Amino acid sequence: MGRTLTYPKLPFNTVNRHNDRATYDLSSIHSIINTTQVLHVSFNTGDSNNDNPFPAILPMIGAMGSFEYPSADINEPMDCYLHGYVSSRIMNLARAASASSPSPGVSTSTGTETGTETETTTENTKQGLPVCIAASKLDGLVLSLTPNSHSYNYRSAILHGYASLVTDPAEKLYAMRLMTDSVVAGRWAGTRVPPDGAEMASTAVLRVRVVGGSGKIRDGGVSDERKDSGDESVTGRVWTGVVPVWETFGEPVRDGDGRVGEVPGYLAEFVERRNAENRAYAVGAVRGSQEGDH
Amino acid sequence: MGRTLTYPKLPFNTVNRHNDRATYDLSSIHSIINTTQVLHVSFNTGDSNNDNPFPAILPMIGAMGSFEYPSADINEPMDCYLHGYVSSRIMNLARAASASSPSPGVSTSTGTETGTETETTTENTKQGLPVCIAASKLDGLVLSLTPNSHSYNYRSAILHGYASLVTDPAEKLYAMRLMTDSVVAGRWAGTRVPPDGAEMASTAVLRVRVVGGSGKIRDGGVSDERKDSGDESVTGRVWTGVVPVWETFGEPVRDGDGRVGEVPGYLAEFVERRNAENRAYAVGAVRGSQEGDH
Fold this sequence. Notes:
Two copies of one chain form a homodimer. By secondary structure, chain A is an alpha+beta fold.
């Protein structure tokens, strides 16, 4: 309470357009990341001379957490843990970047990619693969008199940081639980855990040391331009307003080999709570009741 | 009918993991792009020596189209037009890249960025800013006996291409209508159009010449591992199944200066049709009824 931590405004994360909608609050940014089921992670593959000038984007699952300070609040500094449809490419790039980056005080590893070295909190923050992480939530279609004034209600967050493979089994286990519970709160405890040795070995988790972040939030109603608002041939013909948009979780459908018939409490509550929150936010956003600026 | 165009498998767009879920069909990929309200666009800012090694990601609005062949079907080659919360950065980068890229047969422009030169179809395909465009749709949470077998039902598409500013007014108008109608089908005709001179000048549109694309689709139910399926202490305790997830469009809320009271037909139909389609797909995906592979 009363304490608001913000990300520093750096050249690569400062919002220039509509900067009245910008936020640098850790709490806002981390909350958007944590309630977004699919993150988009961008990185360079390093083969730009090989007829590939394109950065890559992967849709991934992720969540904010701190293994060193597990009780860290949402408004405190945290890492972003990632797991998902991870091609070996991003894992190999992260491993190579961790091994080869200049790291004062740590001798550069020369090809000993055995995956056994435990990374510590004293490592260089900039060791790892540079990544950009985006989370975007659409909250409404804002339909004005003319398409040029159309907009979206939305919340978006961007993080910049350095991704490394998590090698410490305790940290990996912490991250696996964090990410499972970010998909459905309480799910980890409702399943067969812990993972066995083969499962631990086959699972790759990335930890992103966040060095910058920014968010952007637009809510509220329609803004029309004076030239159209004063023209009755326009106002009498064009419908203006907002269509709220939100993510809906449907009735759970039993499948697979579990023999439990009734939907467990944690899952029923998750579906009910998330649907109510999502709908309330999108509908409330029309009146701009969520945040100050719009 | 009977004709299926596919994107070539290139080093930067070939799906390696779960390649049974991969698709290169233009039709599938373009459909995912066109029904995704927020695209994620990644590009490099070119100032990597300036303490910024990160690719950037922007959430943007976009749609597939062909100005040269407006009647092109969804399964035919198309460009991707982009518009959105466009910082001047991506526009400046695209303008600079178009001006400076090697372009056989076209003399390199030397600083005459007047915005008046009309780009033609004979331009070098590789002229422009290299971008990666991602569209991802979450269709369901797949909850198995152990978190390691958890998955998502989803559809994702990736495009690679070269972005240039659209300078021809006729093409810009085409793209503005295309993108407005991609947000709500029929909206363009229901508003005050065409844009006036000031609106045309202040609107920036990017055309991405697509050089590669890929998609990934996962549907179906839960896959449990034999070691868990045969363990009654696990199957008797863990609920398994799928939670369908889809994007819901709420009741339109009147706001702004339009004096039309009733929600117009095209908008009511759009909301109703999109909700029905989204829900039907997500619920149907549990049984894997949408596509062949899962």
